[in-house]
Amino acid sequence: MKQSTPTPQQIAVALTYGQNKGAPKVVAKGHGLIAQAIIERARQHGIFVHESEDLVGLLMKVELDQEIPPQLYLAVAELLAWLYRLEHENTPAVPPIARP
Question: Which of 30, 57, 74, 87 is deepest in the core (most CB within 10 A)?
């Protein structure tokens, strides 16, 4: 029986990244039910879910608890910039001027 190709929702990778921690790390990854659980848990905790079949495919090759390779820095940096914009979309780019 031929298996169908998984959709982006059926493959998931979770990354962690923080200040002074080096490159982002893969902390969870999986197919099918595991992928659905990763996505569901992220949404339960208010974490944005980005769908990029190509990026997920590349990140699936990274071992758990390993930093992403330098070849993926640019792609993941663009993802982090996207997340930053989403999280701060209601924050003014320039703080308001304090008036006496």
Answer: 30
Instruction: Report the predicted TM-score, pTM, of the whole model to 2 decimal places.
Output: 0.73
pLDDT band per the 50, 70, 90 thresholds, residue 2: very low
Under a CB-based contact definition with an 8 Å cutoff, are residues 24 and 76 in contact? yes
Domains of the chain: 9-87 (3.40.1690.10)
CA 3, CA 66: separation in Å to the nearest integer? Answer: 30
Q: Give the single-character DSSP code of 17.
A: -
Q: Dig out the tokens for 85 from the structure.
A: 């914009």
List all residues 6 or more positions away from 10 whose beta carbon is below 8 Å from its beta carbon: 31, 32, 35, 36
What are the backbone angles phi and psi of residue 30, rounded to the nearest 5°?
175, 175
Tokens of 52: 């990029």
- Per residue in 75-95, pLDDT (tens digit) is 999 988 888 888 887 766 666
